[in-house]
Amino acid sequence: MDRGYDCGAAGMAGGVQVTDVASGDGNGDEDGQYLSATAPGQASEAVRLRPEAPGDSSCALVSAVEAAPPAQGEAPGKARPAKAVVYHSQNYKQQLLLIDVQALIDGASSAPDPLPALLGSYGIDDAYLAACRAACAALDGAIAVRRQAMADKVAAVARQALADATARRIYAGLRKVARTVLRTSPEQIALGLDEEASGDTALFLAGARHAVAAAQQEPYASRLAAATWNAERLALAGATLDALAAAILARQEAEQVAIEATRARNAAAVKVRRRARQLRVAIELLLGQHPELSRPVWF
User: Fold this and answer.
1) What is the DSSP track for 41-87?
2) In angstroms, rounded to a whole number, what is the distance separating the alpha carbons of residues 243 and 238?
3) Does the N terminus or the C terminus of the chain have fewer Cβ atoms within 10 A?
4) C-alpha to C-alpha distance for 166 and 185, rounded to whole angstroms
5) What are the pLDDT digits (tens) for 149-168?
6) Is residue 19 helix, strand or coil?
7) How far is 278 from 274, CA to CA, in rounded Å?
8) How far is C-alpha 114 from the geometric centre of its chain's CA atoms?
9) Dihedral angle over CA of 61, 65, 67, 70, nearest 10
10) What's the pLDDT at 220?
11) Please, what's the b/e burial string for 259-275 (b: 16 or more CB within 10 A of its CB; e: otherwise)?
């Protein structure tokens, strides 16, 4: 069940900066994303996002940094600082794969005689190289699409966090004033004043909507109006809750787009990796059968 915040939103709300870290072997078969989480005043820590389903960005955080064992001569209880981790906004292994395969294709296309004829006898002809280029172009495009999808998701998470903060601030003001005029237990129950506002976004939204709807009805509306909360202010409170609901929906849609973009990128990477494997095996076999040939610098 979507509670209004995914891992990214929770990280932002807690002052934690989250970024992608390279993961898997770069072939699109990763079983999770690695992220860095940096809280204010704390050292950054590498964490692993384990998706509930393939490509799903709703996830559990699993620490990937452990205290190093004490060096010789150090006190057993003294932890050594963890090694620095380099973070990347995209899967850098897939990007390296793309660069390597493009170098193979360019090298095979421009190789001097007699290598082109020999490559053709092993199936590496112009048509095959064109298919390899098409696979690389597809991966390059998928990487760009996924990058933008992740940027859109982060922006949607930020907009949801802002809408949540605005709705909570206005709703808190209504509750404070309502408690000054609605003193009996039944009155407070009717407007939800007998309980704290939930920290869960979905529960907060549902409870606040019920409370605002009740506040707009008599006998509460006239009493609240006499205490500065007239119909216009109650309507504004309802509008902020509607804005929060819309922001949650927009964040969910952006998250789904990011999931699909990640899956498409990974599928394109699988195809390029297979092409790379085919090229390398064929060229390695060719060089083994023709020891008189020098190994190309691009291989």
Assistant:
1) TS--EEEEEEESSTT---EEEEE---PBPPPTTS-TTPPBPPPP---
2) 9
3) N
4) 28
5) 999 999 999 999 999 999 99
6) strand
7) 6
8) 49
9) 160
10) 97
11) bebbbbbbebbbbbbeb
C-alpha 146, offset from chain centre = 10
The token duo for 61 is 């955080």
Q: Which of 148, 146, 173, 153 is nearest to 247 (CA)?
A: 153
Q: Enumerate residues 6+ apart whose C-beta is below 8 A from 209.
A: 238, 241
Residue that the structure tokens 């390059």 belong to: 140
46 DSSP β-pair partners: 36
Q: Which two structure tokens, joined as six digits, stand for 30?
A: 């990763």
Record the tokens describing residue 201, joined without a space. Answer: 């976004």
Q: DSSP H helical segments within the chain, as ranges?
A: 7-13, 92-109, 115-121, 126-181, 185-190, 201-215, 220-225, 231-289
Residue 125's contacts (CB-CB under 8 Å, 6 or more residues apart) are: 119
Amino acid of residue 43: A
Identify the three-state secondary structure at position 110: coil
pLDDT tens by residue, 21-69? 433 444 434 434 434 334 444 433 343 444 444 444 444 344 444 445 5
| pTM metric for this prediction | 0.67
